[in-house]
Amino acid sequence: MGKVREVKRRRAAGPAKAAAKGEALTAEFKLGLLRRMMEIRGFEDKVFELLGRNILQGASHVYAGQEAVAVGACSAIEDRDYATSTHRGHGHCLALGADLKLMMAELCGKATGYCKGRGGSMHIADVSNRNLGATGIVGGNIPVGTGAALACRLQKKDSVVLCFFGDGAANEGNFHESLNMAGKWKLPVIYICENNLYGMSVAFSRACAVDSICGRAPGYAMPGRRVDGQRVLEVRGAVLEAAGRARRGEGPTLIEALTYRYRGHSRSDPRVYRTKEEEAYWHDRDPIKLFKADLLAEGSLTEESFAALQAEVDKAIAAAEKFAVEESPYPKPSELLDDVYCGWVETEKGLVRTGNS
Ligand SMILES: Cc1ncc(C[n+]2csc(CCOP(=O)(O)OP(=O)(O)O)c2C)c(N)n1
Ligand SMILES: [Mg+2]
What we know:
alpha/beta, three-stranded antiparallel β-sheet, 11 helices, 10 strands, binds magnesium ion
């Protein structure tokens, strides 16, 4: 029996969860959302650069362009809730409150990373921030999120589970089986499909028999709603509503957020399947640009305070890079099999980790 230790909750460095449903959002809260989107963008741009310099190895699927979905959705859940993520999951981890340094270290395969360098880009789990984990299997987290919602129900918890996935995953069997089960049992899960119009190089319109994913919701006895995934507060509003339903025992919701990934599917993708005009259209609808304009218009932000915020974010990203690339060691080969088997259990003291390595 291994040592049992209590998991310390890392307080989210992102937006404070101060604003409850119906309450007017404070300028501070909205600036927190903006900052988190900017941090994700800065992080992802740095990841892309490090991939190009071969400092970061392996596959990374960059989230740049989709920030409003992760930040809007995660700002609408509470400390007692959970989330499951995908192969394009860095934004979800950060929006849930992950630390930039530990994230970057994990991507670099360093011992100081969230999973001690074992998970890398596609398998980051951060249970202390309610992140049950990402997966490289497209659609693989949909049954996991559904199962977590079933666990919440059986444990009589007032928790909801956010389950992120892409448009490609919505054509997988896992999606249909899970939604059917969740609809039948009215599980407290919020399915968030990030429809970024492509699954690798295949356009959504060529892959999907219907023209909307949320349109499938009635077939599984749940409401479906399409939102503008470039608008952080619109995503937040839809998730708040879905979370309210789930907590009242009314069951799951399927949200389809229309969005766009700026980079190719992965580093080697030259994006020949889409036009410059299409890319320009979505860059015009950049989620950070749109929210910045809203905050400028309402007086919560000035060009000067935005520049100061950008400088702070740049500094934080540079510090994360330095920590991960220069200051952190690789795991020792003798520790290769450590943590291969481990578990997390809920006790009176909260989440604890069992088993040793
Ligand atoms: C079950 C499975 N099939 C295929 C793949 C290869 N694959 C990795 S990502 C991807 C595209 C997924 O598209 P989508 O769900 O829309 O997510 P996006 O990449 O657009 O964020 C595919 C086909 C995989 N990893 N797992
Ligand atoms: Mg997609």
